[in-house]
Amino acid sequence: MSATLTSTIVEPVSSLLLNGTTKKPEAEEEPYKYAHLMPVYSKDKYPPLEPFNHVDGGSRALTHTNPRSFLNNANVVELTPNFGSDVRGVNLAELTPDQKDELALEVARRGVVVFRDQMDFIDRGAAFYTEWGRHFGPLHIHPTSGHPEGFPYIHLVYKDANSRFNTEGLTTTVWHSDFSFELQPPGLTTFFLLSQPKSGGDTLYSSQVQNFRTLSPIMQDFLRTLKATHSGFDSLRSTKGGVVRRDPIETIHPVVRRHPVTGEEALYVNKQFTRKIVGMKKEESDGGLTSDDNIDLLLNFLYDHIAKSGDHQARIKWEPMSMVLWDNRVAAHSAISDYGHLKARRHGARITPQAERPIPALASMKMAD
Ligand SMILES: [Fe+2]
């Protein structure tokens, strides 16, 4: 039997097309373009975060003649009247330091902004991502998640056909502000996908400014006087890589914080990390109802308000090469894991600069050292 005949016989049936040509076998598919950004789970340990003096880039932009000049040639579509924008025509990778400050101000004002067609930025790699984030503040290292080899400051999310999806609950929605339990939680935050399913995995955002503004004046006055405990302990109970690189902490923050640049007041509680209103008695907090998780009645009301207020929400659909920037001080968000059955890869990177310790909306409120 000749070599030519043999090769014809062993051609996999699955690769034969009706017109007699062949398609590429699976094993010969293109190598994954972002393989160098696959997550690794280092066993490094990190000390507690150090306090620092935060100067917000957005405050520098307030003195610019036109603080929105970086959008001069852009097409900006408002996702809702009060919250969220969708921008085309800006290359984030080419922004000057002044324009980055303008970007910080714009995102503080709009809460969340998606920038489309950002392949230039995304293809520059992890060292560039790190440099980008440092313009806005010291970068937070995620205590448990994977990161690109050698770049611990870049938090990666990763799921593919072999990943397990939690389908036990009614929904995968978990509203939160990233790391609100830190003493100086994140401000301007950048996230983008390197690979994604053909649909699904959208991200929900909610305006905590609007969520606060729509409450009655008497409720606003009451909330301004309150503090709440935020805890990182629960979120570290189950970790994908089995690594906890920095010990969790619990921190008390004002329930209503003031943005250092816009001056706007925002609700600052979230179901994932906020645990208790400081100083409330049990009867006041659980209202006489049984409470499995000891979450305050008042907190439950606020969580419900955040979750149900569709008029303060925006939903980001992930076109390829999109980057989303949001201000964690004024926007809550939730991932949506609705794509498990697609058996597709979803690979994303987050750059997470820390900002100031939350400023109480009530100027006379004292926070312990
Ligand atoms: Fe998040």
From TrEMBL:
Keywords: Dioxygenase, Iron, Metal-binding, Oxidoreductase. SUPFAM superfamilies: Clavaminate synthase-like. It holds the Pfam family TauD. PANTHER family: ALPHA-KETOGLUTARATE-DEPENDENT SULFONATE DIOXYGENASE. It comes from Mycena venus. This is TauD-domain-containing protein. One of its GO terms (cellular component) is cytoplasm. The keyword Nucleotidyltransferase does not apply. It comes from the Eukaryota. GO terms for molecular function: 2-oxoglutarate-dependent dioxygenase activity; metal ion binding. The keyword Metal-binding applies. Residues 77-351 form the TauD/TfdA-like domain. Belongs to the TfdA dioxygenase family.
